[in-house]
Amino acid sequence: MNAITNLSPSISRRHFLGASGVLVLGASLPARKVLGQSSLATTFEPNLFLALDGDGGVHVTVHRSEMGQGIRTALAQVVADELEADWSRVEVVQAQGDAKYGDQNTDGSRSITLNYDRLRTAGATARLMLRQAAAKRWGVDVATVTATNHEVVHAGSGRRLGYGDLASEAASLPVPAKAPLKKNGEHRYIGKPVTHVDSGNIARGKGTFGADFSLPNMATAVVVRCPWLGGGVKSIANKPTDEPGLVAIETLYPAPSAGPVFTPLGGVAVVADDTWTAMRIAGGLDIEWTGSPTQSFDSDELRKSLRDAVASPGTAVPGSEKGDVDAVFAAGGTELSATYETPFLSHAPMEPPVAVADVSDGRCVVHAPLQDPQSARPMIAAQAGLSPDKVEVTPTLLGGAFGRKSKPDFALEAVELSKRLKRPVRVQWLREDDIRHDYFHAASAQYHRAVIDGEGHPTAWLQRSAFPSITTVFAAQAEQPAPWELEMGFSNLPYTVENQRMESAGIRPGVRVGWLRSVCNIFHAFSANVFADEMAAAVGRDPIEHRLSLIPESGKLKQPGQPAPPGHELDFARLRHVIERVRKLSDWDTPRPQGTGLGFAVHHSFRSYVATVLEATVTNGRPSVSNAYVVLDCGTYVNPDTCVAQMEGAVVFGLSLSLYGDIAMKDGAVVQSNFHDYPMLRIGETPATTVELVPAQGRLPAGVGEPGVPPVAPALSNALFAATGTRHRTLPIRA
Fold first, then answer.
1. 186/94 same-domain check
2. Which helix (H) or strand (E) holds 545?
């Protein structure tokens, strides 16, 4: 298979390019009519396009961004499978940001969940039209014609035609309203391992990431930003004017300290002919900054405020209260309570933010590692002073993202500088910029209090969660956690308790906060899983047996607050199944050597079920994990190799934040700056990881990129307790 990363043409729902004999087909969903479209689009809006040319080449336009998760491959697999295409003749075309594709936000582990059915429909519709074209040419009933492996075959005579031979005739046919989809068991690519279409180029150093893209006459900019949010440039004491290679020094206006949204932070941009010159000059500037309300922000003080918040009654989650928690507490009994804390975290992808912009001749072109090029497009247009139809936004490959690159502030910086200097500009963030000026994952505190019986079952359970809400980035007055944030492992806790109450509290942060891989599930899964382990330990019960005793045998969770989408409700039987499978996979019941502990955690997030067991020890005061066992039930999956890789990566990601993740702020500024003081897990610390996938069995597809992360930290805490008897309730874990 050949992978290409050029732009998708602007294609109507069905358009025939007669000169080259091309069949172009758009997969559609019910939607509002889009002005300017053809009459064919009065009921449906195009989302994803499939093109078949006269040579038999299949071009699948992928409207999601590739950041190593294999989504360009998976989406093409789905289309090619239903099309019955020869995989070696399929090419991937990267879509620009455009509303005609529907949602393009490669975030929230939703790419397959949202697009699986319509991509299958796109492939199946094209397959049916090719069969119809062949039947018409041969004068036979279409029911006697089949399509397989890039050919159409007549059952009675054995006549066959290649897809390319039929492209022109198929393009002249009306698009059928409904095409039959393959049945389970008939798939050639869905559910099968397929090598990522970009892996060859990446391995050979030919993949185009943000910093690899260049334009003629392009300059490079490095921006020095104020240490605290909302500060601007007061003066520059030593502004150079005649440095070799220096193009310009530009002042950028600061983002607001409250509700900054995705506005650039502001600062001093050093623009030069090459990256090193820009870095060198930027590093030598002596800048005095203006103050802002966040200049005194201190993360230790915020964490104390979070602890205080969960020590007092909060706002009850609507519909969460069952029974009479206070009466059970007043009656006495065996009571447990604990407070759990997690710090601010940085995304720290291997590729820092970078963007190339060219504002010229009344147009703006941007190439950047963006997770959501479509949402970025109107913001880029506003920054450039142009209408969105004059703007092209194309995502490059992303060298990691984890949610950071869904915020286009770095692209807006490049647009502003290109507009001023009237030439292409690449803005290159340094590692220090990335860590100090991130949209940080929020710090949090959780409080759990329960009365338990002799089996460790809670007869009353009070839960409180406090953290700065992501909504504070969008509105100056926002403070309380949003329902969708609480639905991430808090309001949808799967354990059945007769007397229960859930409360939350918000707080204004002094920095930008944003979604990071698995978002609020990180701290909610940590506290709930460790507290469940503490209940089991209090009565000397096996943690897995205890967990199973808290989960019904069957049925669906009726969660308070924001409900799950239909068909994706938390299924107790599926949750129990991954628990039982990881018990067997990890050989849980076999004793480990003295000083080695097994820790278990389970979590439901992004509509998937993940159970994890870690095997850990403490040597010379340092925790280490030798083995990780993960069972994933994500419903129908497209590429099993990708699913396994995502779970393996989640273990590394989760252990990095569990052992090292800690961003601190003093006087409004981030203390950490690079991997020496914000380290990642090294290869020598990475455990052997075994992953099992639960067979799909025709279930709805669910997320894969994020669900593996939440169980890691609590499984580690529980393993270290089993190994040493010391309970860790604060991240990162310091043994």
1. yes
2. helix 543-549
Does residue 733 lie in a domain region? no
In a domain, 731, yes or no: no
Amino acid at the residue 89? R
Q: Which residue has the higher pLDDT, 635 or 167?
A: 635
Interior/surface letters 80-107, b for 16+ CB within 10 angstroms, e for the rest: bbbbbbbbebbbbbbbbbbebbbbbbbb
* Prior bond of 732 cis (ω within 30°): yes
CATH label of the domain that carries residue 516:
3.30.365.10
- Percent pLDDT > 90 in the chain is 87
239 and 122 share one domain: no
Query: Phi-psi region for residue 667, left (φ > 0), alpha (ψ -120 to 50) or beta?
Result: left
Residue 196 structure tokens? 């990522």
Q: What are phi and psi of 452, to 5 degrees?
A: -120, 155
Average per-residue pLDDT for the chain: 92
In this structure, the answer to whether residues 100 and 187 fall within a common structural domain is yes
C-alpha count within 13 angstroms, C-beta hemisphere, residue 236: 21
Please enumerate in sequence order all residues whose Cβ is within 8 A of that of 452, keeping only pairs 6 or more positions apart, or say none: 333, 334, 335, 336, 458, 459, 535, 538, 539
Instruction: Output the CA–CA distances (angstroms, integers) from residue 218 to 127, 364, 426, 433, 716, in the order listed.
Output: 45, 14, 7, 22, 48
Domain membership flag for residue 732:
no
Backbone Cα Rg of the chain? 27
| Lookup result for tokens 């203006």 | 290
545 and 649: one domain?
Answer: yes
Over residues 46-71, the pLDDT tens digits come to: 236 789 888 899 999 999 999 999 99
Torsion of Cα atoms, 157 then 168 then 4 then 384, to 10°? -150
| CA 479 to centroid of chain Cα atoms | 24
Do residues 369 and 340 both lie within one domain? Answer: no
Question: Chain centroid to CA 369: how far?
Answer: 14
Do 490 and 465 contact (CB within 8 A), yes or no? yes
Cα 100 from Cα 520, distance rounded (Å): 31
Mark which of 403, 428, 453 sits at the end of a domain. 428
In which region does residue 109 sit, left (phi positive, over 0), alpha (psi from -120 to 50) or beta (all else)?
left
Tokens at residue 228, please?
């605290």
**Which residue range is the domain that position 671 belongs to?**
299-345+439-724
Sequence-distant (6+) residues with CB within 8 A of 184 are 696, 698
Percent of the chain at pLDDT > 70 equals 93
Contacts of residue 272, defined as CB under 8 A and 6 or more positions apart, other chains included, come to 219, 220, 221, 222, 243, 245, 246, 247, 278, 281
340 and 267 inside one domain: no
How many independent structural domains does the chain possess?
Answer: 3
Round to whole Å and give the CA distance between 52 and 83. 10
Q: What whole-number distance in Å separates Cα of residue 1 and Cα of residue 212?
A: 23
pLDDT band at 173 (very low <50, low <70, confident <90, very high): confident
Helical segments of 586-639, H only: none
Q: Choose the final residue of a domain: 188, 203, 218.
A: 203
Q: Give the list of residues 6+ apart from residue 93 with CB closer than 8 angstroms, or none.
A: 4, 5, 6, 7, 8, 51, 59, 60, 61, 62
Q: Are residues 531 and 417 in the same domain?
A: no
Cα–Cα distances in Å, from 597 out to 117, 364, 511, 577, 717?
44, 57, 38, 23, 10
**Cβ-contact 672, 344 below 8 angstroms:** no
* Range 352-368 average pLDDT: 98
The reply to whether 474 and 531 lie within a common domain is: yes
Domain assignment of residue 239, yes or no: yes
pLDDT at 536: 98
Query: Are 521 and 710 within 8 A, CB to CB?
Result: yes
